Every structure is written in structure tokens, then in C-alpha cells.
Sequence to fold (409 residues):
Amino acid sequence: MKSPLLCWLCLIATQDGRYRLAEILAATALGLDLSTVSAAACGQFAMAHEKLGRNRSDLGLRPAHLNESLFREVTAHLGEFIECKPASVDARTSILADITKTQLSKVIGHRAFDMTVKNKDGVIETVSMVMKSKSSDVETCNMVNKMAQGCGLDLAIQYENFKMETGFRNCHVRELEMLSHTDARYVDITPRTFYMRNNVKKEVFIHFMEHLQDMKHFSTADDPSPWTPDDIRLVLSDIAGFHAIYYGKEAELLTKYWIDVRRPADMGEKEKLWTALVGHNGTEHPEIWTEEICDLAKCIIPHISEIWKHFEQSTRTLVHNDFNTRNLCIRPASRSTDGKEHLCCYDWELATIHVPQHDVAEFLVFTQPADKCDLKVWESYMSHHRTALEQQAGIKIDPTRYDISVFVS
Fold:
């Protein structure tokens, strides 16, 4: 028995109905194309495939994996595992992780634990740790794409075009690779790492680090007032030591598979994306992105590739690339191996090749008063970092060119 739909198609496919059939088939094909393009532009296409197909139960860290077997592995170098209790952690500044974990069935983001062990001297002690579990770079980019989708069609379309070219490529393994560095100038300014697992096949990217919430100036992104001039100079001195590790060794950095570096042409071709971002910010946050600031940004955007050429012609190094008070604090002397205060910097997933002044500029923007820009104060801090970098790298840096790169950053 033929179906009614088949009989209807056969009827209109006669001599008189062939054009009508062609119209129906063309409209169906066009509808499918429009649906696919619209889903891709709004960031729903990849998310649908992730949610309905690729987000399999055998991939990623799952709640069931947080068991005694894992905790014994984490604490093996500390001594004999006794017990693990959940603890609290302030992860309010981890915006992407908080959003991503609501969309995936994997364990994503931060979880705190108090691990009780019997150390090698037979003493029972409790060690506070925070586990950080990363989503893959594709999942992260799709989530940012979803955020762009809520910011209007223009921004959604432009971000879809460049979502894997905005610095997040390999972000799921980049921080783990950074944590493998053994140079004291890096180790001394990062949280103590107890355990890492980088399993690309199973999409498990985790590390356990020391709990930071009793550190000085932890989570002060919304309030720069606690940061004194001495605190700021301390941070600039310590980050200069890190910058010195690869200063002028760009060729060596480019051999790292996890490095994601931007080129002048890359930045220039994103002109429509930068313009869409400025337009969105001007509409949604006019108290910050005033008409004057938006006009200035629009004047700069056509010259981004030229600005990036300036960076390429300058001496570059490995930088944190998200160096602000969301991602750093000060380790008190009581928790330091040398009895002195030190920078403690975390969340290295965006580390890249850039001029070291980029980190300096971002840090000063977050610690200086928003309503008052004292050029002499900025110059004092810039000089402090430049001098520290010269001492650590054993080279002389042109002060004028250094200052230009700070302000261009």
C-alpha cells in the first residue's frame, strides 16, 4: 500500500505538476541550508553535535571518578592516604568554567578537598587542595560562541568565523604543560602542584593544587584598594623573573605544540569581529564604553595589523596573557620556602608569545584607580619592571621602546 505522501508526490509530478514539485524540492533544500547556516552563525550547530552525539559518557572526568582510587594516586607522594573530605572554594572569577560546567555532564571547574594523610614521618596531617578540571578547547570555544550568540546576530556571526582563532586553541593542555616547567623563577610564583593528569584520548585534563583562599589579596578583581605600591612592585619584580626565562628565545617557544600565537595578518582579518565587539560594548555598557572611547577604538581597529607588527619586531617572551587580579595574589612569608612574600599566579591556560609589557599593562590597569591615570606613577612601575627584567635576563633594554610597548599594549 502506497503512503498518502508518495501518492501526492506522484500526482504533482505529472506534466502539469512538475514545476510545482521542483518548487517544493528547492524550498526544502533552501530551508535546510538556511537552518544549518543560522545554527552555525548562532553557535548552536556545534553545541547540538556536542550535546547529542559527542558528549559521550566515557569521555571526560565524571563524578564517579572522584573516588578513593584517585585520591590515593593524588596523595601517594605525600604519604599514606587516610580520608578525603569536600571543602569550599571561591571560584567566582572562573567565568567560563562556571558556564561550561552547566552545559556538560563532565566534572568541569574547581572542587576543593581536605586530604588527610600519614606522612613519611608517621605524622597525620591534613592538606587542603583544589582540583581544577578543564573542558577541551573545542568545548570552551563553543561555550564562548554561545555567549556571543546572546550578544546579537552580528557578533554571533563574526565570532563563529574566528572562534578557534581567539587564543583558546589548546587551552585544555596549555596550563598542564606550563605546570611542567621546573625553572625556579616559574615554580616560585605559582601554586604548589600535587598531581596532574593529561589524557587527551579520554578528554581528562585535571590538576590538584594548593588551596589559595588564605593568600594575601586573593580574589580582589573588583577592588584594587588593598594593593599597595610595595605589593605592586613585588609582583612586577617576580613576573620579570618569569619573563626573563624565554626573553629573546621566541624560536624555542614556537616549537611548543601547545603555543597559540597571533600574527599581524591574523589580527587584521578579524577587523569585523573587533568592530562588532566595540558596537556591543557601546550599546550594553555605555557608562564604560562611552561614545568617545568607542570612536577611538574604531579608529585603532584598522591599524591592528600594524600594531602587531610592532610587537613582532620587539623582543618577545612567554607571558601569562591574563595577568590581572582575578588570577594572582601574594604568597605570605609564612607559606614561602625562603620566608619572603612572593607573587602567586595561576590560571595559565592563555599563556602565549608576546612582549612582556603586555602583562605589565594589564596588571597596572587592574590595580590603578579607574578615575585617575597618574602618568608618573605608571612610569615608575614600568621602570621597576624593566630594571628587574634587565637584571634577570642579563641584557640592556631601550627605555623608550619599552615604554612604547607598554602603552601600545
Notes: The chain has a mean pLDDT of 88. Residues 118 and 274 are 54 Å apart (CA to CA). The chain is about 45% helix and 15% strand. Residues 18-41 form the longest helix (24 residues).
